[in-house]
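Duplicate of #3305? Posting structure anyway:
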């Protein structure tokens, strides 16, 4: 095929991030070099998908070439590989925009994810929209020839670059619709121009595609092409005919992820509505997982015709980590996002697919606890959002939750609610938990001291969403949830803690009441009240709020969500009357009594809120106390 230039080539510079990326491709990612072929084949398939969809509304875009495919050939003597599709193609402007910059690709996040391990880093290619540039792993020069569907032959474009910081672009006369990428291989990559080697790689990376991939017939004297892949969309094949390796490779294709998925579910529904779904659980969280407005959803096909990449209407937001394909026989081919939002069929399919996805997660939890631990580490915080967002699925979600707890060493989430209930102490009727800024902080929280002393297990929560999520939970298997930091901590029915030594016993009731009244007067209106604590064993004091009041952690969540001014509320100070410091407080006179009372309040405030309203005043009081201790 020949292309005649119709304009003077224009030399342009890559954007800075592309230059940096090219240097990485050329010098670092060598351990999995054939990834370039996966990305180029995937791009060609996507181009065909886009044209097939647009042709639904404008059949003239296909012209006389109605059958879509991908053609791959190599010239061992010249050291080149060509990957061509007859899909949507590009205009000159699009070639500059798409190949000269990395648009909407999260380039900074890509570089931030790099580990220095070439094998792991190469798996990121494609996931961040940088798949085309993987060609420079094996090529020292790349040419792209393209003509946009519906444009005249004179509107073709040639783009070329040697990865030297610049590229040239020119308008050419091009008969073929679509895009051709020509790789001029480096000397140490000429092996990929070997016909047998190339054919084996093409089969690996294309058997799952819905389009035929053609290569020259082996041993043919003329350039006669034959299909080397099955050219049958993988999800349309019976499950018994698809191997695990094929499922994994298809996942890599649709997710642009070099790492194998943790699990998948392939199902065909027949009857009132007919559709096929193939759902995957990735092994790693994408860089934009916590951006709730980021693109998400399944690849939607209708009667095997590609419709859109991110059909978000078929799964709830808290399952945004699920990747996969949905192929429906019932939706209209010209389906739009607006129609998807209103169609009752979509709602029915959404409900069924949500159940299917949660069943897949549950199966992983049951059959492979080690992989589920990895899943929870990556996606647990997102899955927990479903507790408040999807009440109808709560019974399915609760057994999937995992927590750190005082039963386990370390701060990793390993305990399920069923495990907790099975380990409950005789007479225990509640599931106790505590929320802090981190699991480590929760483990050291003074609010759970009495519970730990009585060997009662406590769930330790430290995710940002936990205060909100736990506020939505009421019971599990008939056992009510109890925040160890809120309201009165009822220890009725729990095992007794070891009796305190005689010198640490609490004062009698009258003395204790008098002390509490004095402290309340000294603190004036800083607190709602002062009372003897049932939850402390080692610490002298803590601040608590009523069960209906907002905890400090919940206040921070609401403030971060932009809820504006929240109603002020005063905490209650609880004192451990058996603590030596509190007992010493009872024997002090003014002004030392007020100073130490305020110091205990500040200390409790620091534990609850992580900060003080007046840290300078706290330091002054503490220094004054230390000085008096040193003088005795």
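Output from current build:
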């Amino acid at each position: 095929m020949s292309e005649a230039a119709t304009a003077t080539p224009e030399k342009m510079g890559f954007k800075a991030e592309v230059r940096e990326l090219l240097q990485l491709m050329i010098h670092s990612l060598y351990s999995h070099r054939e990834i370039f072929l996966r990305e180029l084949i995937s791009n060609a398939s996507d181009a065909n998908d886009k044209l097939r969809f647009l042709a639904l509304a404008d059949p003239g875009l296909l012209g006389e070439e109605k059958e879509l495919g991908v053609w791959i050939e190599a010239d061992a003597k010249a050291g080149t590989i060509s990957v061509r599709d007859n899909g949507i193609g590009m205009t000159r402007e699009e070639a500059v925009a798409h190949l000269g910059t990395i648009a909407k690709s999260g380039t900074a996040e890509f570089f931030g994810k790099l580990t220095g391990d070439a094998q792991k880093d190469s798996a990121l290619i494609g996931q961040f929209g940088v798949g085309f540039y993987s060609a420079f792993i094996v090529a020292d020069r790349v040419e792209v020839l393209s003509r946009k569907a519906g444009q005249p032959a004179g509107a073709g474009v040639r783009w070329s670059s040697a990865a030297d910081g610049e590229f040239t672009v020119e308008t050419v006369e091009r008969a073929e619709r679509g895009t051709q990428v020509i790789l001029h291989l480096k000397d140490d990559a000429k092996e990929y121009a070997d016909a047998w080697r190339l054919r084996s790689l093409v089969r690996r990376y294309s058997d799952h595609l819905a389009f035929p991939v053609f290569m020259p017939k082996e041993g043919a004297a003329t350039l006669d092409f034959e299909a080397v892949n099955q050219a049958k969309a993988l999800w349309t094949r019976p499950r018994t005919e698809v191997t695990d390796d094929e499922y994994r490779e298809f996942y890599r294709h649709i997710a642009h992820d070099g790492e194998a998925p943790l699990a998948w579910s392939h199902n065909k529904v027949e009857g009132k509505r007919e559709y096929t779904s193939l759902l995957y659980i990735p092994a790693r969280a994408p860089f934009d997982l916590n951006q709730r407005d980021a693109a998400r959803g399944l690849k939607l096909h209708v009667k095997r015709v590609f419709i859109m990449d991110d059909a978000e209407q078929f799964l709830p937001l808290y399952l945004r980590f699920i990747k996969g394909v949905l192929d429906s026989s019932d939706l209209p081919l010209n389906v739009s996002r607006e129609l998807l939002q209103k169609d009752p069929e979509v709602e029915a399919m959404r409900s069924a697919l949500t159940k299917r996805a949660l069943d897949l997660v549950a199966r992983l939890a049951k059959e492979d606890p080690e992989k589920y631990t990895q899943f929870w580490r990556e996606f647990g915080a997102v899955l927990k959002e479903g507790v408040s967002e999807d009440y109808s699925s709560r019974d399915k979600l609760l057994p999937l939750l995992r927590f750190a707890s005082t039963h386990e060493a370390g701060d990793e989430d390993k305990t399920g609610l069923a495990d907790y209930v099975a380990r409950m102490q005789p007479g225990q009727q509640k599931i106790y938990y505590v929320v802090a800024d981190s699991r480590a902080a929760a483990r050291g929280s003074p609010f759970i001291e009495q519970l730990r002393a009585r060997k009662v297990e406590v769930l330790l929560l430290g995710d940002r969403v936990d205060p909100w999520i736990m506020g939505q939970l009421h019971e599990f298997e008939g056992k009510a949830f109890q925040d160890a930091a809120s309201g009165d901590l009822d220890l009725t029915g729990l095992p007794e803690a070891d009796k305190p030594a005689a010198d640490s016993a609490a004062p009698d009731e009258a003395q204790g009441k008098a002390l509490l009244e004095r402290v309340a007067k000294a603190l004036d209106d800083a607190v709602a009240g002062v009372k003897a604590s049932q939850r402390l064993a080692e610490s002298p004091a803590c601040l608590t709020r009523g069960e209906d009041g907002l905890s400090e952690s919940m206040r921070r969540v609401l403030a971060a969500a932009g809820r504006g001014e929240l109603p002020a509320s005063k905490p209650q100070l609880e004192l451990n009357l058996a603590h030596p410091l509190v007992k010493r407080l009872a024997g002090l006179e003014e002004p030392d009594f007020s100073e130490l009372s305020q110091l205990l309040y500040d200390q409790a405030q620091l534990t609850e809120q992580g900060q003080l309203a007046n840290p300078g005043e706290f330091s002054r009081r503490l220094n004054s106390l230390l000085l008096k201790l040193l003088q005795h």
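Confirmed duplicate; merging threads. The chain has 21 helices and 23 strands. The radius of gyration is 32 Å.
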